[in-house]
């Protein structure tokens, strides 16, 4: 639930990122959002995720660094194969693309809603 709350409150425009400090920020940001997952998969997997996101960004002509970081966060939370997973069809085709283009809160809320469906309430 902690990662859901952090993701829900996340504002991509609130972080300062350049291509020079991108590598460090990605690791710190993902560790902040979901420390257990970050520790479980390790920093090498995050490096591979970053490289995979680079390919996705080039293929889909995403040019803004903040949009790339948002994509990496979504891939980190949902898994890298979200693009091909039929369960995430609504997320990946409509909301993610729209958010990456428009960066509006309505699409972010829809993505958060999809992520909340994956959460298990253990309390």
TrEMBL record:
The chain crosses the membrane at residues 69-87. Keywords: Membrane, Transmembrane, Transmembrane helix. It comes from the Bacteria. This is Uncharacterized protein. It comes from Salmonella enterica subsp. salamae.
